């Protein structure tokens, strides 16, 4: 019995001497867990996923999926894993239905009832030709193909890119149901808000290196906000306010403290305009790096 469904040990991939993919990435995904893998463009998310599926060879290090070695046991792994690639380049004149059945048959037996359910949830027209579909519809095909054989592990590389918000919502409902069934899910994304919705833990990757692994609970506790204020009064700058910028009566900063305290402080001055928004991923990374420096 393996206690990690997915285990990476110092997994490293260089495309050539100069081009780094990922460096020394070690992490474990537990059975039944949804693990978010987030990072900006070029961080190494697709490299990690493609290495796990043996679409590219690791330069060094190792990894196991359900106790199977990613290099030696590729075929056995493919039967356990549903994979959604970030890019979907399907072509040909097969209908969607035929294509899903054909493509998923390599991974296992298709559950027709589940296929009908997924197709309906995602509003996918199964009688259309695969080559006539938009990118978003091809992405839906990739989702259904990955799920219809009911794999016990899902490896998803930016699965929501190209999906409209309504369909994204349906997709999260599908993943919620998968989680209830005990499926283990590795979910890569550059959007922290979306992984927050469903993930138990997140790993943050930047410039090929895993920067941190945190529970969503801890991220939410430590999460900063971007605040913009327009005022003619003087705002007292506290140590919870970082990256403070003043411009034409506007003050903007990242706030790392209790929102309640901030609102109390702001209510003491005359405010013409106020916005409190999610910081960008880069700003969150900076926050994490600051924590790194302290520890
Ligand atoms: N085929 C390749 N040859 C050379 N370098 C590559 C290749 N594929 C990726 N890289 C490099 O590896 C690094 C990681 O890229 P990767 O595609 O894994 O990032 P990512 O986090 O998935 O980004 P994105 O969100 O843009 O897809 C980048 O610096 C990229 O330039």
Automatic annotation (TrEMBL):
InterPro entries: AAA+_ATPase, ABC_transporter-like_ATP-bd, ABC_transporter-like_CS, ABC_transporter_ATP-binding, P-loop_NTPase
Pfam name, any one: ABC_tran
GO molecular function, one term: ATP hydrolysis activity
Superkingdom of the organism of origin: Bacteria
Domain ABC transporter: 6-232
Record's keyword terms, sorted: ATP-binding, Nucleotide-binding, Transport
Gene3D superfamilies documented for this protein: P-loop containing nucleotide triphosphate hydrolases
SMART domains in UniProt: AAA (SM00382)
Family the UniProt entry places it in: Belongs to the ABC transporter superfamily.
Protein name: ABC transporter ATP-binding protein
